[in-house]
Amino acid sequence: MAVRQIVMLIAAGPLIACVAGATPPAGAAGSCGAEAFQGLVGQPESRLADLTLPAGTRVIHPTDRITMDKRADRLNVDIDAQGRIARVHCG
């Protein structure tokens, strides 16, 4: 039994090394500039018309269908059912 455990640990070594060098997940702080827009949370969606948002920004309403791909450089602005900005995040 001990030999089998040793073989499993040796085989898992390269996999552990891959995880250790992994890149931060999409939406990590600072990757899309979301911090600069956090003051918008709680404001009406109409406030966005006064701003120049980064290219590729998604304004997402509760019933919108969106792709599930995560991009660390894409700004997302979530709008709640009352038409207010609920969340600003990367992804």
**What is the highest CATH level, the class?**
Alpha Beta
**In the residues, how many domains can be counted?**
1
Let me know the number of strands.
Answer: 3
Superfamily (CATH H level) name: Trypsin Inhibitor V, subunit A
Q: Work out the helicity level.
A: 10-25%
Number of helices: 1
Radius of gyration: 20 Å
Strand content: 15-25%
Largest sheet: 3 strands, mixed
Reported by name, the CATH topology is Trypsin Inhibitor V, Chain A
Helix/strand/pairing category: alpha+beta
Concise summary:
With 91 residues, the chain is of the alpha+beta class.
Give an overview in words:
Strands 1-2-3 form a three-stranded mixed beta sheet, with no helix packed on it. It is elongated, with a radius of gyration of 20 Å. The protein has one helix and three strands, in the order αβββ. It has a single domain, classed as Trypsin Inhibitor V, subunit A (Trypsin Inhibitor V, Chain A, 2-Layer Sandwich), CATH 3.30.10. The protein is of the alpha+beta class and 91 residues long. A hairpin with a 5-residue loop joins strand 2 and strand 3.
Please give a handful of descriptors for the protein shown.
alpha+beta, 3 strands, 91 residues, three-stranded mixed β-sheet, Trypsin Inhibitor V, Chain A
